[in-house]
């Protein structure tokens, strides 16, 4: 039996999970499932030890493009999450500024000093 089979299966499950449309409503669930699958795959990979057969080497080479796709989708997910957090932070700042527009004014605006005696 191919010792790389469990790694292949988990990698395919991870790729399938990340191929689906990820939006704010299901993002947390997708991240949790992806984390579990990555940990599971890591456990299977640490159990692998050389020497590898030609069949196992070929299966490993076949996993490289799938792994590249997974890495790309994970980066896209991370970037979208960063963008959403940045927008939320800007929105909070705008709301605070709208509620109290003169809070951050450093100079004394509207001050008039009469020089006549």
Uncertain residue ranges: none
H-E string: HHH
* Count of individual beta strands: 0
Distance between the termini: 102 Å
Q: Give the total of domains.
A: 1
Number of helices: 3
**Helicity level, as a percent range?**
over 70%
Largest sheet: none
Q: Mean pLDDT, rounded to whole units?
A: 89
Strand portion, in percent? under 5%
Based on secondary structure, the structural category is mainly alpha
Q: What does the radius of gyration come to?
A: 27 Å
Shape designation: rod-shaped
Could you describe the 3D structure shown?
The chain starts with a helix and ends in an 18-residue tail after the last helix. It has one domain. The protein is mainly alpha-helical. It has three helices and no strands. The mean pLDDT is 89. The longest helix has 46 residues, at 54-99. It has helices spanning 5-19, 27-47, 54-99. It is 70% helix and 0% strand.
List the helices and strands and how they pair.
Layout (H helix, E strand, L loop, with lengths): L4 H15 L7 H21 L6 H46 L18
